Amino acid sequence: MDKKKLIGILFLIFLSGLGLRLLNLNKPEGMWNDEYLTWEIAKASFPYEFFQAILRNCHAPLHYIYLKLWILAFSDSDVSLRMSSLVPGVLSIIIMFFVGREAGKKTSDTAGLISAGLCAVSSFLIYFSQEVRIYSLLFLISALNVLCALKTLENPSKKNCMFFVLTSFLLMLEHTIGFVFVFFSTVSLILFASKKSKFKKFLLTALVVALIIFIPLAGLHIYNVMFNQQYFSQWWAPFSWAKLAFFFTDLFSPYLVNITNAPPSFWSMVYNGHTINWGFTLFAFIPLGIAAFCMVKALFDFDKKIRYILLTSFGVYFTVLIASLFGKILFLTKYMTEIYPLLILLCTAGFVSFKSKGLKITLATVYTVVCIFFIFASQYSPVKLIRTEGQNIPVAMLKVLKYDNDDKVLFLYYPKERFLKYSKEIPENINTSHISKYDFLFIKDNDEIMKDTYAEGKITYKPVFASNVNIGLDKFLKKNVYSDIQKGDRFFLVDFAPVTIFGDTEFQNVLKSEKRYNSTPFLYLVFSYIRNYIVKSANTLLSFSGVVNYQDWRIFIFEKT
User: Fold this and answer.
1) CA–CA separation, 486 vs 243, rounded Å?
2) Does the bond joining 394 to the residue before it have cis omega, within 30 degrees of 0?
3) pLDDT of the residue at 329
4) 289 touches 363 (CB < 8 A)
5) Alpha-carbon distance values, 190 to 156, 198, 303, 338, 429 (Å)
6) Phi and psi based region of residue 521 (left: phi greater than 0; alpha: psi -120 to 50; beta: remaining)
7) Nearest Cα to 120, choosing from 140, 138, 155, 94?
8) What does the pLDDT look like over 144-177, one tens digit per residue?
9) pLDDT band at 511 (very low <50, low <70, confident <90, very high)
């Protein structure tokens, strides 16, 4: 392909990807929990508090270091923080061009452009290019690692090996389970690279050196996760076989389902028992069908690069699947971001292998039009998806309700300090309190530590849940709500709906059913109980004025009459 034409097409792809990632970048709902925690760690005072915060967290450290530098260079406004993900997101488009080109043999320019194009219009990558999380940078590092691996496959020189080891090290520092990808990628290289005998010795030596550096960091990290009492299991998304299919629709269609959780049935997204969901059916199956068609076609050219792609990607996929079946990790699409560049390559390899130019134009046009049309037109577009847990939402709701400094506010589940980024007045007010997931032990009214509570909570708290009287909660409410509330003052109970899922009657039914009780996450039980108890208590002492709902948040309003 003519060099000027090639650069022109690549530049258009880059601009398209940039434009799509800039759409609705500023989210009025603010950051949700995981984004907020990422920012909170990155903004901690350097060095002691910063590294202490990293050690207390269950994620690898590299992204927090990157975000710390970003904040120092720019700012920590929401837009700036989202830009920290957008930049690696658009750089990935260029890197994927070189990845595709490296894998493309005689059709290298076309393969590079197709890989870049798939990256540019990917709803999955667009979504995480606007998210203050690790996954945009993770994809960039993964793409660089795949590029180095492909170069090493073709020419296992010391230079290529060292770059592969370096990017593998960065990948492990970026993602807690990045070592799984590195393991299968390394095994694949050793099996399929040319000049094996010389190459194996050098690569293994380089990896041993990297692991000597990495293991102490990993060991310290794993120790903190396993034994620090601040860590406890919160399995939000129980495993379902449907997630295996949602993984592929997330990556190769514009319809994102398995980002934080997914329906237990894949076909329920297609047909709900009464009507066909044409939105999902068309916008998920058409692009996925095209991608699957291309990937199957790639399997007929079973060269060493295809074998590397298959062994590495399926090794990671099934490792995460097995870990999910044993309850050790959630089977979410984002947790396997590392293999996405490989799957894009597989799709690209199949596409360029078609001999019919008309077929190629048709497939590329339909895929691109469907993806871009969905992004602009659908309410489920990756740029329009609302972070329903966004922590500016309850602050905005309180402002709409004309919160007054004499009014009482009680936040459930998250500490009140969590909302300081969006309102310095409300959480700092002396009339503001919280019962968070980190300090609700007083409702049991005896000494224990948080780790023991999460380990044995369902057993030890069941008598508390069944009782109509809770001395610890009564004392808390008297001190923080009822003691000095005056006539005309209001009490706002800010309720986080995803964890307070049971009303009072339903909660009693759960207590009576051993099967339902045992299958319900402990946090849902605790905060449903706390919310129900406070609502009943407030109803006896104050006048109920109503409840306001928006996204994942509810505010119960009471008034002293």
Assistant:
1) 52
2) no
3) 80
4) no
5) 10, 11, 15, 19, 61
6) beta
7) 94
8) 999 999 998 888 888 888 899 899 989 989 998 8
9) very high
CA distance 417 to 405: 16
d(CA 561, CA 552) in angstroms, rounded, equals 29
pLDDT band at 457 (very low <50, low <70, confident <90, very high): confident
pTM, full prediction: 0.91
Q: How far apart are CA 422 and CA 230, in angstroms?
A: 26
Contacts of 99 (CB under 8 A, 6+ apart): 112, 115, 143, 146, 147, 150, 341, 344, 345
Query: Residue 181 in 3-state DSSP?
Result: helix
Q: 194 pLDDT exceeds 80?
A: no
Three-state SS string over 128-159 comes to HCCCCCCHHHHHHHHHHHHHHHHHHHHCCCHH
The most distant pair of C-alpha atoms in the chain lies apart, rounded to whole Å, by 85
Residue 137: the pLDDT is 98
Contact yes or no for 239/322 (Cβ under 8 A): no
Q: What are the φ and ψ backbone dihedral angles of 494, each rounded to 5 degrees?
A: -90, 115
Nearest CA-CA partner of 77 in 30, 20, 126, 134: 30
d(CA 223, CA 215): 12
Residue whose C-alpha is closest to residue 413's, from 40, 39, 33: 33
Strands 490-496 and 543-550: unpaired
Q: Is the pLDDT of residue 516 over 50?
A: yes
Q: Work out the angle between the directed axes of helices 504-512 and 522-541 (0-180°, nearest 10).
A: 140
Q: Is residue 191's pLDDT more than 90?
A: no
Dihedral-angle region of residue 273 (phi above 0 means left; psi in -120 to 50 means alpha; beta otherwise): left
Q: What angle do CA 361, 367, 372 make, to 5 degrees?
A: 120
Measuring CA to CA, which residue among 350, 284, 288 is closest to residue 115?
350
Q: Which helix (H) or strand (E) holds 433?
A: strand 432-436
Q: Which of 378, 368, 484, 501 is nearest to 431 (CA)?
A: 484
pLDDT-derived band of residue 448, with 50, 70 and 90 as boundaries? confident
* Residue 459 burial (10 A CB sphere; 0-12, 13-18, 19+): exposed
The secondary structure of 298-328, three-state, reads HCCCCCHHHHHHHHHHHHHHHHHHHHHHCCC
- CA distances to 49, 81, 137 from 56, rounded to whole Å, are 10, 22, 21
The alpha-helical segments, DSSP class H, found in 23-61 are: 33-42, 48-56
Nearest C-alpha neighbor of 294 from the set 347, 344, 253, 343: 347
User: From the CA atom positions of the chain, what is the Rg in Å?
Assistant: 26
Which pair of structure tokens corresponds to residue 57? 């967290």
> Is the separation of the CB atoms in 246 and 240 below 8 Å?
no
